[in-house]
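Section 5: illustrative case.
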């Protein structure tokens, strides 16, 4: 038990000490040129956002390799057509697009301050697909 706790603490410390590699306002649109397969990456992000009924947004992790940035999906809550609140619902690995725990370790990482809503990600995917034709 103590060994596992020490391993977890070492991982937290290492993550906190990681160099920030993306700008504070990074979005999918601003990093697509650095992604190995931008259309597939954006398609996978959009797929992981789909379950939140389009009332969601995505932000990028700033402490990982910019070729495969991890991303955070947040649910949006509205009141009179204005955003009244935001709740973290999921964190995904950028390389595999597999879900991670949306716990304090992941949610307290440095995330971009700028987000993209579902419709914006959908439009970006359409633009990328059109460029491939």
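Designed sequence:
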């Amino acid at each position: 038990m103590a060994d596992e706790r020490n391993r977890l603490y070492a991982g937290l410390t290492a993550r906190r000490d990681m160099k920030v590699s993306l700008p504070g306002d990074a979005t999918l649109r601003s990093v697509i040129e650095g992604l190995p397969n931008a259309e597939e990456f954006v398609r996978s992000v959009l797929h992981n956002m789909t379950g939140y009924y389009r009332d969601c947004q995505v932000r990028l992790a700033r402490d990982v390799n910019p070729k495969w940035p991890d991303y955070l999906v947040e649910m949006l809550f509205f009141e009179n057509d204005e955003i009244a609140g935001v709740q973290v619902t999921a964190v995904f690995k950028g390389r595999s697009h597999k879900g991670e725990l949306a716990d304090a370790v992941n949610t307290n990482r440095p995330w971009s301050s700028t987000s993209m809503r579902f419709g914006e990600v959908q439009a970006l995917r359409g633009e990328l697909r059109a460029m491939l034709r």
